[in-house]
């Protein structure tokens, strides 16, 4: 991929050159923002709409964070895999269809726009609007996909590489956090070894409220699959639970609502799979919570040091053995929320 900036105008020109958008159409393009790893634009013309993505070779954060740009094709393959599972089940959820894909040198993917009446679940959660029903559906979706893909040899072969996961998660989250927290570094490195040695199913890798869109009927759309790989399902469960528990401490006045959403998510997930990954989920949850304070991608809304310190205490106490079950982890989080 060239290093030239990919402007909205360049995105439109690319789609027109590829015959995806008519050359004579009245086209509008706007940045969707909100991400650190891609140029992302919404391109509209007539009654049509596409979201166009091109990956950044170095993510837009304060720390140096390079990543291979072919991850966008990994994302396109994962959307197809998720779509195939969801079409075969009755789970009320969707993923965007891949409309266009260009490989070298541009590495551009264009996908279906989400329904106009949807918005990011993260927006609701940060505003204190916590719908445990959405959490349960999101847990069921993840469990159904994990369960279905665990026995799919074709999916296992397609996503065998953990390179995107290492570049976009393990290195910036786990290794960086271990370096910055030497008092719990050994426990974090043990978790890294466990994660990298576990290969059980298709892992989304970024399963969080910002990548869930919900509408009036609370039917979620799942987005952003560039970290997808064949690996440890506990990473996905921990990733979502981490966001819910961080918000439960950040917005501590509504801690109980977030904790209930976390419980509903977990309960729905467990019903959909035939394995027990609670202890693994708790171990990873502790690392991820600490990473969202001290890693390369800290949570942008945690702007009070008292909240950051509370998150550190929950994470480090768990890493030192004070919590091995989700109930025990929830108790630590509740204790910190009540103290703020």
Please explain how this structure is put together.
Helix content is 50%, strand content 13%. The protein contains 12 helices and 10 strands. The strands form 3 sheets. It has a 5-stranded antiparallel sheet, sandwiched between helices. A 3-stranded antiparallel sheet has the order 6-8-9. It starts with 7 loop residues before the first helix and ends with a helix. The model has no long low-confidence stretch (mean pLDDT 91).
Short description:
The protein has 340 residues and is of the alpha+beta class.
Count of helical stretches: 12
Tally of strands: 10
Using the coordinates shown, work out and report the CATH topology.
Aminoglycoside 3'-phosphotransferase, Chain: A, domain 2
Strand content: 5-15%
CATH architecture: Alpha-Beta Complex
**Globular, elongated, flat, extended or rod-shaped: what is the shape?**
globular
The end-to-end span amounts to 48 Å
Structural classification: alpha+beta
Q: How many independent structural domains?
A: 1
Alpha carbon gyration radius: 20 Å
What characterizes the major β-sheet? 5 strands, antiparallel
Q: Spans with pLDDT under 50 lasting ≥5 residues?
A: none
Could you report the average pLDDT, rounded to the nearest whole number?
91
CATH H-level superfamily: Aminoglycoside phosphotransferase (APH), C-terminal lobe
Give the H and E element order: HEEEHEEEHHHHHEEEEHHHHH
Widest sheet, order of strands = 1-2-3-5-4
What's the CATH first level? Alpha Beta
Q: Approximately how much helix is present in the residues?
A: 40-55%
């Amino acid at each position: 991929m060239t290093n030239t900036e990919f402007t909205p105008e360049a995105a439109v020109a690319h789609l027109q050159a590829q015959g995806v958008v008519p050359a004579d159409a009245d086209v509008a393009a706007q940045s969707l923002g909100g991400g650190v790893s891609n140029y992302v634009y919404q391109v509209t013309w007539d009654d049509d709409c596409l979201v166009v993505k091109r990956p950044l070779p170095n993510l837009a954060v304060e720390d140096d964070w390079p990543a291979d740009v072919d991850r966008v094709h990994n994302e396109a393959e994962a959307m197809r895999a998720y779509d195939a599972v969801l079409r075969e089940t009755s789970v009320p959820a969707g993923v965007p269809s891949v409309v266009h894909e260009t490989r070298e040198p541009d590495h551009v993917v264009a996908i279906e726009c989400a329904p106009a009446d949807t918005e990011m679940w993260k927006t609701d959660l940060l505003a204190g609007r916590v719908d445990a029903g959405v959490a349960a559906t999101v847990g069921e979706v993840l469990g159904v996909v994990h369960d279905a893909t665990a026995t799919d040899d074709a999916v296992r072969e397609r996503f065998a590489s953990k390179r995107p996961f290492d570049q976009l998660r393990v290195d910036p989250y786990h290794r960086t956090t271990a370096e910055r927290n030497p008092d719990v570094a050994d426990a974090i490195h043990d978790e890294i070894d466990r994660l990298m040695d576990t290969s059980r199913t298709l892992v989304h890798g970024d399963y969080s409220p910002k990548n869930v869109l919900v509408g009036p009927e609370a039917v979620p759309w799942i987005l952003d699959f560039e970290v997808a790989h064949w690996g440890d399902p506990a990473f996905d469960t921990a990733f979502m639970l981490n966001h819910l528990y961080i918000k439960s401490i950040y917005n501590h006045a509504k801690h109980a609502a977030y904790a209930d959403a976390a419980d509903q998510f977990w309960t729905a997930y467990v019903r959909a799979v035939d394995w027990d990954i609670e202890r693994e989920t708790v171990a990873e949850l502790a690392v991820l919570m600490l990473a969202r304070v001290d890693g390369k991608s800290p949570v942008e809304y945690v702007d009070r040091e008292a909240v950051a310190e509370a998150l550190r205490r929950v994470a480090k106490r768990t890493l030192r053995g004070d919590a091995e079950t989700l109930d025990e982890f929830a108790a630590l989080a509740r204790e910190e929320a009540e103290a703020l």
